Amino acid sequence: MLGKGRIAALGFQHVLAMYAGAVIVPLLIGGALGFTSAQMTYLVSIDIFMCGIATLLQLTMNRFFGIGLPVVLGCAVQAIAPIILIGEQYGIGAIYGSIIVSGIFVVLIAPFFSMVVRFFPPVVTGSVVTIIGLTLIPVAINNLAGGQSAADFGSLYNLGLGFGTLFVIILVYRFGRGFSKAIAVLIGLVAGSIFAAIYRGISVQPVVDAPMFHMPTPFYFGMPTFNWAAILTMILIALVSMVESTGVYFALSDITKRKLEKSDLTKGYRAEGLAIILGGVFNTFPYTAYSQNVGLVQLSGIKTRKVIYVTAGILIVLGLLPKVGAVTTIIPTPVLGGAMVAMFGMVVAQGIKMLGKVNFASQENLLIIACSVGVGLGVTVVPDLFKVLPDFIQLFTSNGIVAGSITAIVLNIIFNIIPHRKEKEVVEPARIDF
């Protein structure tokens, strides 16, 4: 029987394991879109708050939603690049309009996802996640150098701070044990920020200006707008997240020795869809099951949902205290950049890991990967590639992630789903004429 003190400690451990991953999503998006300090503080705080709400939706079991496993939900890292692109091209309103619609889509498709998932085997999802990670790397490198518009871009100080942060993360991964590895990124961010504070100082004005308490405000950044290209992008990201979450569900079912039925998966998907809708309403981001917390469940051997309820409660309380959120907004840009290199590189590594399940003896699978990654990166590097085509077609070609994803899906259908007869070479005996 676990005591209250141990349950609280284990719950806080789960918060630490997912905190850096959850917080870095609003930091990157808000920084890329030029949010003010006050806006960034709200964005980080409401994100933490909604992580708690999203986790509660999954923990709660009823007839409509909630898978009832010890799962923690946080912001989907794979959504960062698409959201930044949507914000730059169509505005903030389009970000939240597309998130809301994608959430509704997830809720509606939840009972039928088992039929749709066949279109998203590892060769597709692995290619998509790899593309997402690769498109994020330039963002990380720009931040490591100080930010693209910084006057001291690429200075020795910025490079030293960025690579120093990355080096600390690597050291923690190399020599750390157990839980310390789970919070290696957080340790790196703290170490880099402390060095920057000692060497040049850090302004704590955003923390001073932040209120002690606030309430979540629907549509804080304005009313949502709806753009088909943005909506399609977020739906694709939601589908990829559903595939990843499915892996988390089955991993936890194996750890907890609980057999999952189709109805359980449906309720799990619905809970994620509801969380995504609420994310759009309260101006945060899409949510997905966090695999790093699965590792903690395995590591600790504590499988009760009570611990995760505590985790959700802590996240909700922290999200109502803007000064806590404001602390993360004062992290220097090069420090964030150093952490981003590791995190976004891990997204690429996760994509490659997913591709590891693919049968590489099949030339068709190799072609799917080659073409989808090639098209995705090509459109990202040369976004005007298809500008002469009609606007409707550009909905599918203006974004490298969408273009690469659609390429992978279509080629997988052609090569692996549509029945086709392989031609057999018929060797006829040689004719000998006398």
UniProtKB/TrEMBL annotation:
Topological type in the membrane: Multi-pass membrane protein
Top-rank lineage group of the source organism: Bacteria
Keyword Ubl conjugation: no
Annotated Gene Ontology cellular component terms: plasma membrane
GO molecular function annotation: xanthine transmembrane transporter activity
Transmembrane portions of the chain: 12-33, 39-57, 64-86, 92-113, 120-141, 156-175, 182-202, 228-252, 307-331, 337-355, 367-386, 392-415
Keywords from the named record: Cell membrane, Membrane, Transmembrane, Transmembrane helix, Transport
Subcellular localization, as worded in the UniProt entry: Cell membrane
Pfam families assigned to the protein according to its UniProt record, in alphabetical order: Xan_ur_permease
UniProt cross-references to InterPro entries, sorted A to Z: NCS2, UacT-like, Xan_ur_permease
Family statement drawn from the similarity comment of this UniProt entry: Belongs to the nucleobase:cation symporter-2 (NCS2) (TC 2.A.40) family.
Protein name: Xanthine permease
Lineage: Bacteria, Bacillati, Bacillota, Bacilli, Bacillales
